[in-house]
Amino acid sequence: MTFRTKLLLLTSLTVAGAVALVTGAVVVSTRRAFEHIDVARREALLDQFRRELDARGEELSRRVEQVASSSAVEQITSGVAEYDRAQAEAQAQSLDFLDVVEPDLTIISSAHWPVRFGYKNDWNISPGISPQDWRATKSFLARIPLPEGTAVALVCARPAPGGKALVIGGRKLNPELLKSLGIAPGMRALLWLAPDDLIDAQGPVENAAKLEPLIAQVKASGRESTATVQWRAQRSSAEAFLGLPLSERGQLMGVLLAGTSLREETDLENAIVWIGIMVGGSGIAIGVLLGWWTTLRVTHPVEQLAAGARAVAAGDWSTRVEVSSHDEIGELADSFNQMTRQLVEQRDRAIQAERVAAWRELARRLAHELKNPLFPLQITIENLQRARERSASEFDEVFREGTTTLLAELSNLKTIVARFSDFARMPAPQFERVDVNELVRGVTKLYEGRPPISLRLELAEGEFWIAADSDQLRRALGNLLLNAMDAMPDGGTLHVATESIKDGVRISVADTGRGLTPEECERLFTPYYTTKHHGTGLGLAIVQSVVTDHHGKVSVVSEPGSGSRFMIELPLKQGDLI
Amino acid sequence: MVGETLEDGARALARSTTIHLAPPERPHVTMHNLTPLSNTEAARVQSAFERVLRRNGRNEDVVEVTLTISDNIKGYLLVAEIFHGNERAVEMRSVLSEPSIAPAPVGITVTKKLLWEQSAPILDLALVADFMFVLDTSGVSRYERRKDKWDRVGVLPAASFVRDPRGRLNLEGDSFTIQLPGTTCHGTWNPSVSLACDNGGMLTAARNTLESEEPLPTHFSIARTKDSLLLAEMDGRTHVYDAVGKPVAAFEGWGSDFAALAGGCAANRILASSTSYGESGDSLVLYDVANNAPVRLTDPAEFAGPVTALWPSRDGALAVVRNISTGRYEAYSIAVDCGR
Amino acid sequence: MRASLKTLDPFADSDPQALGARAWLLPAVFETLVRFDEHGDPQPCLATSWIHDAARKRWVFTARENVLLHNGTPWSPKGGVIEVPDDRPLPDILRELARPSHAIVVHAEDGSLIGTGPFRIERWDGEKSARLAAHGGYWAGRPFVDAIEIKMGRALRDQELDLESGKTDVAEILVRDARRLRQKGAGISATPSMETLALVFENSRSPDVLREALALSIDRATINNVLLQKQGEPSAALLPRWLSGYSFVFAAARNVARAKQLAATSPPLVFAYDRQDPILRPVGERIAVNASEAGIILRASTGPADVRLISLPITSRDAWIALEDLAAMLKLSLPPATSGLFEAESALLNGYRVIPLVHLPQAWATTGAVRDWPRLADVWLDSLDAKAKP
To answer: Is C62 in contact with B293 (Cβ distance < 8 A)?
Structure first.
């Protein structure tokens, strides 16, 4: 992750976090505030409902009293009137329900269900109460049975004069009751009436299945309950309800539902959240801008520096970083540039030194190589000089021996010169498709069967085609084999293997000789470094050169006493050639 | 049944009710009266019912029987319900009122006038000036009217020992003819009374049927109209024959006493009594027989008992009625008032 | 009148509602050979007398003389007699001949119907109104009134208003309103029970025990005493007592406990009745209340129903004809006449397919001038009180 990204993330998170925290806090406070208001409003509504109910109850008892003291009731109780006489009285007093009953609650005349005369009134009235007590009773809620079901009504009972009858009248709980309540905007009152009617101020409420769980809860528990009902997918359609049971003598008559729309609250919360989002968004945008500016000022130079460092690592030590700022970054860039400059200088010096060293080494090696054949030359010529001075016959033999030795050593010299010449003149490789296994087999054939050294060949399966110069590869491999055999003067096992590696092939040549120390390993591939008592020391340098030309790698693993293992790793491809 | 009394009906009902009672069962009768019948009359009906129903027996198992006196448009209906546990059997008996016929045309009425009453059965009666001859089961008695009172001035014994006795008395000047079952007697009353009887005559011997010269089916009454002959025959119906004696029709509704009348608007018309069995009041109605069927012409003239004799007379007919309440025989002169 | 009659043709089918009205109107226009008097006995009408042979297989009816049809032509059957020969004995031929379907009706070429009765059909607007004009040549004498105008399909309330406003001389009324209307000065005429309120099961889906339970649950006495103000005769019989004499034999007592037992776990019944009818409605409602006390649920319906409360008319003063007509209305088969009237009625009531409730009289209110209503042939207007007719 780049610094820019990290910075951006950090900034964004910080801004977002802060804004979210603030928004959340505001929302919670808002909600609490609304809740408080709701509670207060509901209390007011309930109070109003109770007062309204009481007022209606008073009105009802006045009307029932009027009916009770009317001549119609007298006619009814004396049997003079027709069975449905109560209807006219109910109509006159605007009563929805009216029963004139005997003291034992047997109906004499019923207004709303005229044919029920002779049956007992079952509005949960207690029989046997004295007229004085009835006169004092207040209105109460009751469930009135009707031909087509039941209805909940506010009911009042008053005795007729003489105590011969009881007049029980009632008015249905209807939307008018709810209409008369002054309800705050955003609130509404519904009334659920047993067994299954739901009304509001406008009339019956349809599609209120979502209120059923709350109503059921109130019914089951007999106590207040609250619930929030979401009418539609939008949160703003939610309504918070308080359900209040309306019971009479242990029987539930209905449930008053006070509902508060959560729209305002939801809208406000939404607004707050949106503001929060916008603020946060702006903050993040600003952060982005800031970040961009920062990266411009900071990360770009740093990237430049990083790029420069990579270039240096890749070998381009002359890399310079152009940074114009005068701050710490600028200082850093300057330091970097200075470093590369010094590196280049050092490298040049090192190269120079290495060249000098290499020349020195070459000269030493040359001197060493030449010295060997030159010494016998000198001796031979000295012998010849001495022999000449001695006898002619000794001279002939010595001459013969001597010239032979001279020729041999001259040949040696020529070989050395040829080697050096070869090394100097090693041509660029000609890449072609080469089967490594085949090549290895070919090379090892030349060297097999030379006891006491046994050859073990472990070639990877199949054909291994690589792009390579087969001659140079043969030569390099040959050199490795020779070196390995040279390392085992007393015999051993020569192990040659090929194996596949990623995008390449590894050829390993291992011996069971005396092994090499770490310092020796280090210097091994320097031209003229040899641990052998003979040889030009160019062998491994040639191997190194060939491998380098093949864009490969050569390495050695060795430990004193355990033998050595040389590994050549070559890529499969050379440019476009496989 | 038409004409039977309620008590008769109750007895008949009781008889059919006994079928539902096993011998050891004793009925306990409860009565309901749904009609305007008075309590006394209803009690009479109940006792008539119970009397027949009462059984001799061990009287152990009591069976509830409800007797209901009901009525419908046709008359009374007596209903007995016999309860055995949850099972109930029902017997009914109709006591029909007389089938009335369409009201007669306004005008003609049958009038009756009581002439004489006595305890012995009157068979016939004839009036001549101030004298009255009464033929009864003991003979002919002659009465003279003195000071608005009839005094018996003579009697001619002429016994008749027949169940349901009938007799006919014809007066012609000073002589008379008496017809008794199987006997015809001729006699004079003025200046002296004499009587000579022979076998034969219009009344069948030892019977209450009539004889005739031509061979006719046995009959109780005979009447001839312009073109038909009517006979009250043994089956209780009135049979109609045409002029040549071929039977053409038969109808019900008349009793066994009827008489063809002569004169005025009654000519070719027949006075007939209603059928009666037993002890309710009869009535007489004047009929026209048109196309061999009776057509009622007058409202009924009611009597307090059954008509035991009905003979055509000079100016109408003579009807003898046994008064049920007094048990005495009343002789009426029947006349047809032809109206306006 | 409430009923609507499409036609007065005695041979046309009619639904039960109109049968009563038709039975009453028909004799005013079409006469039979024999008719029933107030005792239900056959009396001469167009036949003055009749005779039969001994086996009662051949009846000969003497046609009344001087009978004119409504179109003025004399009615004179050939030979002055009508012979009715038949292979089987016809003891009940008099009853049969008194049926409206045996009325003497002549179909005129224009499709109108001609009879011999005291009135002729001057106009008949099917189901709406009709005008019967006096038949001047009626054999028993021209009726006193010139014509009788009939408005059909008129609700009771409307009839009362028509009476009050003078639009009509006669209005059908509920018997319980008689007292009130009499106080207002109307004349009241009533006939003995001519209709029977009954519950009729319209299909055989409901089990016998449920029907019996419903019958046992109904409180007829209270329905009659309170709803009908004692004007009817509570009864479980089809024929009223004035006609059969034995209506009380059919048990009409209430037994709620037994009804509950029989009705246990029974399904609800669909119950229908005319809600506009001022009698059927309260009676129907009361029946529902009675039934619910026994655990029987009656669900109200205005369409097809399991059980329906209807009014069955008594169409004749002859009990057998009335019973036969009731059986036909109820689509039940009647045992043969030989079995007896009581047995026949018992067979109809067996199984509780029909549950009679109460017999109701028919009543009319008339303006003060009308006399001798409802004997149409004898109706007349007292000139002292008669109003000028338009």
So the answer is: yes
Query: Is C246 in Cβ contact with B77 (below 8 Å)?
Result: yes
Chains near A, with 3+ CB pairs < 8 A?
Answer: C
Same-domain pairing of A507 and A385: no
Say if residue A123 is in the same domain as residue A255: no
CB neighbours of A315 closer than 8 A, spacing ≥ 6?
none
Q: ∠ CA A124-A130-A134 to the nearest 5 degrees?
A: 60
Contacting residues of A for C300, CB less than 8 Å apart: 147-148
Q: Which residue does chain B place closest to C41, by CA atoms?
A: B99
Q: CA torsion sign, A209 to A210 to A215 to A221?
A: positive
Q: HEC states along A196-265?
A: CEEEECCEECCCCHHHHHHHHHHHHHCCCEEEEEECCCCHHHEEEEEEEEEEECCEEEEEEEEEEECHHH
Name the percent of chain A lying above pLDDT 90. Answer: 16
**C contact residues 282-301, partner A, Cβ 8 Å cutoff:** 282, 285-286, 288-289, 293, 300
How far, in Å, are A178, A246, C278 from residue A256 at the CA level? 10, 7, 41
Work out the average pLDDT over A135-164: 88
Sign of CA dihedral A402, A405, A409, A411: positive
Tokens matching residue B166: 């009938």
Q: Compute φ and ψ for A12, nearest 5 degrees.
A: -60, -45
> Of C219, C288, C293, which is closest to A147 when you measure between CB atoms?
C288
Q: Are A255 and A345 in a shared domain?
A: no
Q: Does domain C30-101 have CATH number 3.30.43.10?
A: no
Any chain C CB within 8 A of the CB of A114?
yes
Task: List, as ranges, residues 295-334 from B with C-beta within 8 Å of C.
Answer: 295
Contacts of C37 in chain B (CB under 8 A): 100, 102
User: What is the rounded distance in angstroms from the CA atom of residue B95 to the CA atom of residue A278?
Assistant: 111
Among chain C residues, the shortest Cα distance to A81 is held by C226
Q: What is the pairing mode between strands B109-118 and B122-128?
A: unpaired
Q: Does chain A reach chain B with at least 3 CB pairs under 8 Å?
A: no
Region(s) of chain C under CATH 3.10.105.10? 192-363
Q: Any chain B CB within 8 A of the CB of C319?
A: yes
Closest residue on chain C to B288 (Cα): C49
User: CB distance B72–C81 less than 8 Å?
Assistant: no
Determine the Cα–Cα distance for residues B297 and C11; give it in Å rounded to an integer.
35
Closest Cα in chain C, distance from residue B193 (Å): 50
By the CB < 8 Å criterion, does C75 face chain B? no
Which CATH architecture group holds C192-363?
Roll (3.10)
**C253 lies within 8 A of chain B by CB:** no
Is residue A302 in some structural domain?
A: no
Provide the pLDDT confidence category of residue B277 given band limits of 50, 70 and 90.
very low
Q: What is the pLDDT along chain C (390 residues), one digit of tens a residue?
A: 888 888 888 777 777 677 888 888 888 899 988 888 777 777 888 888 887 777 767 788 888 888 888 988 888 888 777 887 776 666 677 888 888 888 888 888 888 888 999 999 888 887 889 999 998 888 888 888 888 999 988 888 889 889 889 889 899 888 778 778 888 888 888 777 789 999 999 888 888 899 999 999 999 999 998 888 888 899 999 999 999 999 999 988 999 999 999 998 888 999 999 988 889 999 999 999 999 999 999 998 888 999 999 999 998 888 888 999 899 889 888 887 677 899 999 999 998 999 999 999 888 888 877 877 777 877 877 765 444 444
Each residue of A364-415: pLDDT tens digit?
A: 777 777 777 777 788 888 888 888 888 777 778 888 888 888 888 888 888 8
For the full predicted model, state whether its pTM sits above 0.95: no
Alpha helix positions (H), A69-101: 71-78, 86-92
ipTM of this complex prediction, to 2 decimal places:
0.83
